[in-house]
Amino acid sequence: MSRQTDNFQSYVDSPEKQQQLYQRTLWIVVMSQIFGGAGLAAGITVGALIAKDMLGTDGFAGLPIAILTLGSAGAALTVGRLSQRFGRRIGLASGFFAGGLGAIGVIFAVVNNNVFLFFAALLIYGAGTSTNLQARYAGTDLANVKQRGKAISIAMVSTTLGAVAGPNLVGVMGDFALSIGVPTLAGPFILAAFAFIVAGFVLLLLLRPDPLIVAKFIAEAQDENKGTSTEIYEGTASSNRSGIALGATVMVITQVVMVAIMTMTPVHMRDHGHSLNAVGMVISIHVAAMYLPSLITGVLVDRFGRLAMTIAAGVTLMSAGIVAAFASGGSLFVMIMSLALLGLGWNFGLISGTALIVDSTNLANRAKTQGTLDVLVALAGASGAGLSGMVVAQTSYATLSLAGGFLSILLIPVVIQSIKHAK
Questions:
Q1: Above 80 in pLDDT, residue 415?
Q2: Rounded mean pLDDT, 185-194
Q3: Of the residues 87, 198, 371, 420, which has the fewest C-beta atoms closer than 10 A?
Q4: Domain holding 364: CATH number?
Q5: What residue numbers bound the domain in which 114 lies?
């Protein structure tokens, strides 16, 4: 224990060493996110299609996304608490391992056409999707105030490599699944199981020393010696409840709109005769738009502010809803445009909301608070997914898209109210 303490003390004494660990942590997060991204794409690409085949109706096609998102809510709370107590390494690795186990369960459910096992496995699979999202926080533990937007962005953009490849491998993994006697739609979950488990091992084996534990030690040392100071903890001495509430609101609205429209897009496209490969391409472009712009978004969030980018998120999501609503189901190009805008708006909202959360919490409660707020985000997504199928069954995909677009505009008055409150 003394040796570990001495090792941590070296980070207190050396800001240069802190930055080296910050950079190393980002690279490890990048590696894990590449695999994690490939794992999260399976559920959103074919989950609704599997449910439609099993249940024989579009009305419950949104249920798989709702269930895996509900599972991600429980996992977010657990991973957040594990991370607060034992560090990011244990918390994040545990979440990815659980996600891999859930993906294996989905494969068995599809093979046996067991809808109850399918839903139960999706609940566990949701842990992987939640952990993939929570990993964005790991890069911020040792980041100073001016690095946080960029740190979040690097973690998210690395997800793109796996997340874009995943949906584009739907056809390939389907053929592979058939070759081993497994139904085509289970193929993406074979990839997900492998990807989540590898992501877990990357973090478990390489994320040493743990950035959150080191950051806590530095903060405690600074409390004891007020003469020592670094930029990492500037402005984080106490929690800012209004900032936390604003960040949570931004992420919740963004998640509801994105998940609701995204969930029903594969079903909408299949109903209009598009192939599984075309569906995979649209979803991959959507996921690319969710993560690929992150590096630029992070710079914009740090430079122009969290509130300006929140307004940009609302406008972009509204545009996505309008384009999707007036798109012909047979137009692949228009579907690509609407889903790309949907992903971009989500990217703006999530990064600006996450930065607000990091700015408004301190190290004593940061991981726990982040996990709790991600529960709200996940539950919002689950609600959006669950209701989306019912809305489309009773009305239309266009109605769902317009409703999402109008809901997005609420971000603007939220920001205006926040500015008035700050004055």
A1: yes
A2: 89
A3: 420
A4: 1.20.1250.20
A5: 2-422
